[in-house]
Design a protein that fits this description.
The protein has about 240 residues and is mainly alpha-helical. Helices cover about 60% and strands about 10% of the residues. The longest helix is centred in the middle third of the chain and has 35 residues.
Length: about 240
Amino acid sequence: RVLFRSTRIEGTIRGPVKVRTGILEFGESATLESTLAYFAPQEAQIPATARITGPIQYEMTSGMDQSWLYGLLRRVGIAIAFLAFGMSLAGGLIGVTLLPKTSNKLIQHISSNFGSECLRGFVLFLVMPPLIFILMVTLIGIPVAVLSGMISLGFGIISVIYAAVLGGALFLKAVQKRETAEANWKAVLVGIPLLFLVNRIPLVGFLVNLILFLAVFGGIYGRVWTIVRREQPVAPPDGI
């Protein structure tokens, strides 16, 4: 069953009226001393005793009034934003608490090589998807593509969380005038709310989040590659 939200106009209204509704009704003594513009599935029933001095503009809408849907979507969006905020905050605190040395080395490395790691992250972000696709079309490369995709996805999720940690660490470094950026609980509690606020600014928020994300994304790959190179066995000298 379709239920319409109704709007009823009574008394005297001097200003113009613009309304989107399901059903528009006028009282017997309603007086509108200006224009009327309304959006509804059907025309309003205006009693003969009601008086409208200005022009009337009517546009038909399909079905019921959709304002409730917009309100619902807005509430869902707010709930998702708060959920993402809580998950990022929890993830950041868990990361710097369980892996304090690793987190600190990563943030310090990125802050010291911000430009190069941001460029590395940008290149990898562009290269990895087509490379994984190329591997997927070959039978032998499917396992490698799946593994690479899972690794990239994992690094991406970590990068989203640690982008805020990096932002908080850089902010505290500048405010407290420290020589190095540190990844700790203070950086998490400052960085994540700060980035969520900056993200409300059109375009600027997107660019700031993107740059921090790419820097962390490239930094993680750089650190992993460094560790892999160090763990490679060294060839024994000749004659041994």
